[in-house]
């Protein structure tokens, strides 16, 4: 029998989706399940987005679209970047994809040859490692434990870039930790980046509108404009606008990179659907009240989650200031038992928690940090306090 390509053996199913599927299965069996697992915003976009989609459907041309994205969509994205303080981009600097994950995969194809090195901090979004392994790149991980607020330091970055990796991948605000780099921290890291002109920089900033406590978004290019010639900015509609299923991602960077991504699109997807494009334009250019309201709601939920995490003896949880995650270090539970079942690691913890209390979380090892777990607090508001109470009870019952 013919064999599959070797790269398929390097591809792994999403751990996050595995946890979500198990929670869904238990719920279908009649269990009372509260899911803190999957990173979906759990709200819908404004009515103007649906109106634009309906209008586009009524006028559907049935034709192929642009591999790069329509002019109107690119212009809406450029205006969005300008509002973030990222100016000077034209359509030739931009391209689109079926979500940010697809854009990042295309960038891996465009920037990394087999054996090239990509470096990124740990904890990391699970797909970073998965994509790197599929394209057979080497990965250099920068360990950033809870003791340093899950943030990479300039010294760590300097040591890593001195090895001349092909790509540095940076996520701010962070999934899975919710941590946000301040402007001063961005300046300090950018001061290091300018010393190493042979490394591409990818900034995965899809949570840039979900900032709490009055923090403002900051990017390397704002503080060191010369980094623009090798920096690629990633964004998405999924989180900010409650549109994960619509699958719209963006990139902006050097023209050569945008052209490469567009060429890959011509072979992979051809174009974003016409109706999706219309909805995306409406989301970016229309009223922003839904994203604004949801950001305030998430900040309030963050406060509720942190109050519980801070009250559990032994748990260490840096205070996140963005996205919609908390990432507590729960290693204090390792070696203990619950209901006679021993907890040896983060995977055991999440399995026993789900079986015993009906609360689904993702083990931190999925993100490269086996001492922690990720809580996504976007569940319906009435489920938040009961879910947190169950976690608190679970810790209290450990022996």
UniProtKB/TrEMBL annotation:
Classification lineage: Bacteria, Pseudomonadati, Pseudomonadota, Gammaproteobacteria, Lysobacterales
GO molecular function annotation: transaminase activity
Any matching Pfam family: Aminotran_1_2
Protein name stated in the entry: Aminotransferase
EC class: transferase
Organism in which the protein naturally occurs: Thermomonas beijingensis
Family: Belongs to the class-I pyridoxal-phosphate-dependent aminotransferase family.
Key words, A-Z: Aminotransferase, Pyridoxal phosphate, Transferase
Gene3D superfamilies hit by this protein: Aspartate Aminotransferase, domain 1 (3.90.1150.10), Type I PLP-dependent aspartate aminotransferase-like (Major domain) (3.40.640.10)
UniProt cross-references to InterPro entries, sorted A to Z: Aminotransferase_I/II_large, AspAT/PAT-like, NHTrfase_class1_PyrdxlP-BS, PyrdxlP-dep_Trfase, PyrdxlP-dep_Trfase_major, PyrdxlP-dep_Trfase_small
Cofactor: pyridoxal 5'-phosphate
